[in-house]
Amino acid sequence: MKKYPRLDKYYDELIKMEDEEPERFYDQRSYSLMCTLECISNYEFIKDFCLKNNFKSVFDIGCCFGYQSEVFYESGIQYRGLDDTISKYLWNSELYEYQVGRFPCDVKSRKGELGISVLCLGWNCYLYEDTKTLDEQFESLVNQFEYSLIYMQQNLVPLISRHFSKVEHLEDNFYFFKR
User: Fold this and answer.
1) Residue 174: pLDDT above 80?
2) Nearest Cα to 92, choosing from 115, 62, 69?
3) What pLDDT was estimated at residue 61?
4) How far, in Å, CA of 128 to CA of 124, rounded?
5) Is 39 helix (H, G, I), strand (E, B) or coil?
């Protein structure tokens, strides 16, 4: 796995700030970064998939603070993200575009852009109304993206497959969907 020195340095800075002023530090940046670092190999898989399959742009649904955009930094792949987190601390915000909202919502997808989501779409904690939410999320996904790469619970794939012309299990919990 590749090293991400900018993320490591920022994590150390966040921990230091939390130690010095714990009462002012409530936005969970360090927790989010720690979670990102633990599952960064998922984003490396997405990057490699994009490079192999000629995707030049990804739109990350559920990007939180956008730390995973670091994986796409210097790869030639454009990154955009969506989350319902409102923060002035979005990672690489000078390079990449972020949108505030809760999916399903209009994301203004671009032609050829790959919709991606890791541990967001198709996970129980984000299924606010159970299968109704799941259905709404994937109906919106197919309407906005020709192709999607989603890291999701395997048992939910049969419930949403009807929305797509192609569903391909790649590895682990990764599924590739075609409109």
Assistant:
1) yes
2) 69
3) 97
4) 8
5) coil
In a domain? residue 25: no
- Tell me the β-bridge partners of 175: 150, 169
Give the chain's domain count.
1
21 against 27, higher pLDDT = 21
Instruction: Let me know: does 32 contact 38? Beta carbons within 8 Å.
Output: no
pTM for this entry: 0.89
How many CA within 13 A on the CB side of residue 107? 31
Confirm whether 117 is domain-assigned. yes
Find the angle CA(113)-CA(115)-CA(121) to the nearest 5 degrees: 170
DSSP string, 53-74: HT--EEEEET-TT-TTHHHHTT
- Name the residue type at position 78: Q
Say which CATH number the domain at 161 has: 3.40.50.150
Tell me the two tokens of residue 7: 């993320």
Evaluate whether residue 32 is within a structural domain.
Answer: no
In a domain, 48, yes or no: yes
For residue 120, pLDDT over 70 is answered with: yes
Look at residue 25 in the predicted model and tell me its pLDDT: 64
* Joined tokens for residue 165: 């012309």
Query: Residue 87: which domain range?
Result: 38-178
Model pLDDT, residue 31? 80
